[in-house]
Design brief:
The chain is an all-alpha fold. It contains 19 helices and four strands. The strands form two sheets. A two-stranded antiparallel sheet has the order 1-2. A two-stranded antiparallel sheet has the order 3-4.
Length: about 575
Amino acid sequence: MTLVGWGQIALTLALVLVCALPLGRFMARVFGDERTFLSPVLGPVERGVYRLSGVDGREQGWLAYTLSMLVFSLVSFALLYANLRLQAFLPLNPQGLDGMAPDLAFNTAASFVSNTNWQAYSGETTLGHFAQMAGLAVQNFLSAAVGIALAVAVTRAFARSGVATLGNFWVDLTRATLYVLLPLAVVTALAYVALGVPQTLLGAVEATTLEGAKQTIALGPVASQEAIKQLGTNGGGFFNANSAHPFENPNALSNMLSIWAMLVVSVAMPIMFGRMVSRERQGYAIAAAMFALLIAGTAVVYWAETSGNPLTTALGLDPAAGNMEGKELRFGQAMTALYVAVTTGLSCGAVNAMHDALTPLGGLVPMVLMQLGEVLPGGVGSGLYGMIVFALLTVFVAGLMVGRTPEYLGKKIEAREMKLAMLAVLILPLVILGFSATAAMLPAALASLNNAGPHGLSEILYAYTSGAGNNGSAFAGLNANTPWWNTTIGLAMLLGRFAYVVPVMAIAGSLAAKPRAAATAGTFPTDTPLFVGLLVGIILILGGLQFFPALALGPVVEHVLMLAGMTF
C-alpha cells in the first residue's frame, strides 16, 4: 500500500461527497414537490407522461403503493422476457443473433427487473443492439427508479405524522427517471464518449493483428449503457469482461468516473432523507455508517492484494506488485481495491477485476459487504431503506439497554415494526444459505464448478450472495448458464428484491400512521457518533451471526491453506 494509492482513493471519495451533497438536496426538492432548475424543461414532459398514462397523482397507502410496484415489475419482467426470447425477429440485430433459451431468458429478465444485472452470458455474443437498448438499458433506468421511489416512500413515513399515505408510486417513478437518472445518464454518457468509450449502432469491425491474423471486435451503444449501468447500480456489462474491457473502461479517468457514478446517487440518498425529514444530521449519521464500513472493506482488500500470494512467490514470481492475477495494470491496486469494495458495498456488480482471482481474504470482503445487507451504501434506494431497517433494530437494542420504548425520528418502534424488520432481515440468509446448501449437495450443480474444496464452496456462496443481494457480480469460476443455476439464481434475485421490500413497506405504512412525537431529555439521539458506532456494530453482529460459519468453511479455510503453502 502506498500514499499515492490512498491519495487516489481519498480524491475519488471526496469527489463523490462534493457532488452527493447538492444532489441529495436537489432530490429532496424533487420528491417534496418543489420547483427545481429543471422544472421549466421537464415539468411539461412530466405532465405529458401523466396524461398519456392516466396517472392522477392521488396518494396511496402502503399496500396500494406496494401493489403498484409489484404489478409494474411483473409487466416489466414479461416484456423483457419476450424481448429476449424473440430477439431473432427484432430490428437492430446486426449480428443475426437468436433468442435466448427459456431458462436463460428467465434468469436475465429476473436479473434486470430486480436491479441485479447478473449475467450468465457474454453480452457481445448473445444480445443484439435492440435487446441491449430497448430491453436491458430500459430496465437499468426503471429498476433503479423503482428503488428510489420505494426509498422516498419509506422516507415519507418519518417525515409525516398520523397519515395513511406514502405518496404515489407512479409519480415517484416518473420523477426518479426524469429528474434524476436521465439527466445524470446523459452527462455521464457524454463523458464516457470523450474518454474513448464507443457509442455506435455498428455491429463489429474486423482488425488485423500484429501477427497478421484477423480479429472481430464487437461494437455497439456502449457509453449510454455504461452510464446508467453505473448510476443505477445495475452493473450488467455490454461486454463479457465488464468494466475490465478496454471499450467499457479504457483508462484511469474512466475508471474513476465509473466509481464516482456508482456511488453518487446512493450516497445522495441519505442526504435526501435528512432533508425530507427536516433533520439533516440524521442523513449524515446514516451516510457516516455507510462510509465507515465501505472504507474498512477497501482497506482490507487493498492490504490483502498488495501483500501478494505466498504460493506464487514460492514459484519465483516477484511479489513487489502484490497479487496482480485477474487485474488491469492501467488501474493499479488501489483503484482496483476501491472498485471491488464499492461495487459490492453497493448492489452494483460491475467489475474491473476478476473477483475469482482475488486472494482468499480479498475475496472474503466483497462477499461480506454483500451479506451485510447491501447497505454500504447499497443500491439506489434499496441501500437507504435497508439501512433504515438496521437503524430501527439499533434503536430497539438501545431501548432495551436503558429500559425505554425505542423511538426513531419521533416514531415509536413497537412489536409490529420489530417483527416486520426481522422478517426482512432474515430473507437474505434464508435465500443465500438455503440455495447454497442445496447446490453443494447436488451433482448437477457441482458439475458447474471449476474448483474443488473451499474455493469451490466460495464460488457457490458468492453466486447466491450476489443474486439474493441484487448485486450481480460473480466469482467467474462458475459456469452459471445451466437450467439449475439460471432458475435458482433467478429465484434468489426475485426473493432478494421483492420479498425483502414488502415487509419494509409495511413498516413504512405503520410508522406513517403514528404521530411524530417531539424529542425529550430521555430520547436516545440518533445523529451522534455513539449512534453511528452502535449502528455499525449491529450490522456487523447480525452479519457475523448469519454468515460466519459458511465463510469459515470457504475463504477463511482457503486463506489458512494458502499460508501453509497448500492448495486444491
